[in-house]
Every structure is written in structure tokens, then in C-alpha cells.
Amino acid sequence: MKLSFTTLGCPQWGLERIVTKASEYGFDGVDFRGLEGEMDIFELQPFKTGYVETRSRFEAAGLALTCFSSSITLASVERAGRNWEELERYVELCDRFGTRYIRAFGGKLEGRDRSAGLAASSGLLERAEPLLRQSGVKLIVETHDDWTRCEDVAALLEGTSPDTVGVLWDVHHPYRMFGEPPERTWNALGSRIAYTHWKDSLPQPDSPDAFTYRFMGEGDVPFQAIRSVLTAGGYDGWYTFEWEKRWHPDLAEPELAFPQFVRYMRGLEAEENERKRAT
């Protein structure tokens, strides 16, 4: 099981601390979603003129840069120009760091008809296909916003190549927002799932649409079932912890949450291996 975390969970950490703590806690890689307050990391010196040193630092620590998590929003017409600029910049970073994935959102419809969102997405993905294919990069669409249910994500993927466009299964969102069973998600999207995000939560009893994030295993997201579905389906990609501390500053510090994630996931892996030996 390959473990990484997004830098969304450590918004105050600098690059050196990210590398040091990732190694110390037992992670295998890091997914960049901002650095020290700057979300567009391609604007920062360590990823521009200093990228060779940054790459060497990660290589020396035995850490991969697993994904660049962009703000690309496929269904947004207003953001079309910005989407393309981000895509080009992140493709450059993927080339510099040997990274395979760029995360994208479907985005919020905000009252628009779903067909309009699909049309905007289709236009961008069609334009992006030659760039992605030439660079060997895959754009992975997260189960998020108004594109969380498996059938809606499948609609976004229609007409795209599995070589260039895949799915980032945030295992929390379909289950929490729609009660979507893991088997249903996998049956609809499994052939395109290239990457996963993990986090736990509990619903708030006084507000059925709200929830509170918890440490792994302290909520009710069915991680064992999700892991079993992934394993049975042959998934061998990343298991990435998305601790959303940048958006929720009251969450526990990464010094607590990150090592707890590693312990939980390694325990989950060990339990699965033990079950296999017993059968």
C-alpha cells in the first residue's frame, strides 16, 4: 500500500519540513495542494528555477511527488482560460518531477443545467487530450462538488480516453453525501480509478447534511469494505490522506493526524493480509 498526503493538511509547513516529516512518519510520497499559503505552486521558486534541487531533495528522501492537485474546474465556462493556463503549467511540473497525475474538479453547477456543465467539460477535455497524451500525464477528476455520484462522474468521462483522463476516488464524498456503497462506485468507475483520497467523518445529528471530520477509524466511513473493493479490483495506486486543515483550521495539527493515518492504514493492510492467510 503506497501512502501519501496532500499539503492541504500542513499549510504552515515549509518544503524542508514536508520532506522530513513525510519520511519520519512513513509516507511514500507527497501530493502538492499549495505550499505555505500559495496554492499555485508553479509560481514558487522551488518549482521554477529551483526545481532541480527540489527534485533531488525528494529523491534523496525516497519520496515521490504523487500528484499536483490543481484548481482546474472542468464545468466552469467562466474559468476556461484559467483552466487551460493551469493545465499547461502543471504539465510542465509533471515533466520536471516525473509526476503522472494532475487533479481536476468537475465543479459546482450553481443553478446551471447539468448539460451545460458537461458541454464545458467536454470542450476542455477534447482540447487537452493531445497535450496530455504527448506528455504522458493523466488528468484525474475527483468525486467532488456536483460530480460526486458515480453516474455523474461517468458522464464527465464520456468520450475521453482512459490513457489521458481518469478518476480520483475521494472515498469519503460519495459515501457521506449520497450513501453510495463502495461496490457501486467501483462497478461504475473502477476501470478509470487511478488515485484515491482518504478521510473520515461522522454526520452531525442536528444537521443531516453536515458532518465533522475525525481521525481515521473514529468516523463511520467503511474503509475496510473500500479497501477490499480496491484490492479485489486490482487497484495498485496511491492511498492519499486529505486532511483539510487549510480550509478547517480547527482540525488537529498534522503532527497528530499524519502519523495516525499511517498507523491506521498499515493496520488495515495487516488485517487484510491476515484474513487472506486464514482463508
Automatic annotation (TrEMBL):
Residues 20-255 form the Xylose isomerase-like TIM barrel domain. Keywords: Isomerase. It comes from the Bacteria. Pfam families: AP_endonuc_2. GO terms for molecular function: isomerase activity. The keyword Protein biosynthesis does not apply. SUPFAM superfamilies: Xylose isomerase-like. PANTHER family: HYDROXYPYRUVATE ISOMERASE. This is Sugar phosphate isomerase/epimerase family protein.
